[in-house]
Every structure is written in C-alpha cells, then in structure tokens.
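Chapter review. Work through the record for phospholipid-hydroperoxide glutathione peroxidase before attempting the end-of-chapter questions.
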Amino acid sequence: MFSKIEVNGDGAHPLWKWMKEQPKGRGTLGNAIKWNFTKFLINREGLVVKRFSPMDDPVVIEKDLPNYL
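Structure tokens for phospholipid-hydroperoxide glutathione peroxidase:
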C-alpha cells in the first residue's frame, strides 16, 4: 500500500514535479494533474516520452509501450 502524496502545488512530490516539467510531460491545459489516473510513459533512458490523460483509452496506451521497451 502506498501513502498519499501531493502531485500539484508547492508541496508536490519531487518526482511528480520533475515529470510535469519535462517537455513531453506537459499537459494540454496546463501542467497540473487534473484527476486520478494521469499516466506518464518513461523510456529506458529515464525520460518522459508521453503523458496520458485519465480519458485516454488504455488500448491506445498499450500500443505505445512496445516503442519504448
């Protein structure tokens, strides 16, 4: 079980701050995490390559995965 952390604002966890600051980690309507289930795809080099909204179809996300394995 994980504990609750902040993902937005001054108290946001450093990992979430970093992911949102990356060129491919920026949101379309600002960088704030708007809702649960925002997902980030990170490649083998540790770079954010894509950000998915909670509304993105998991099938679409799954199709992107082999490109970064």
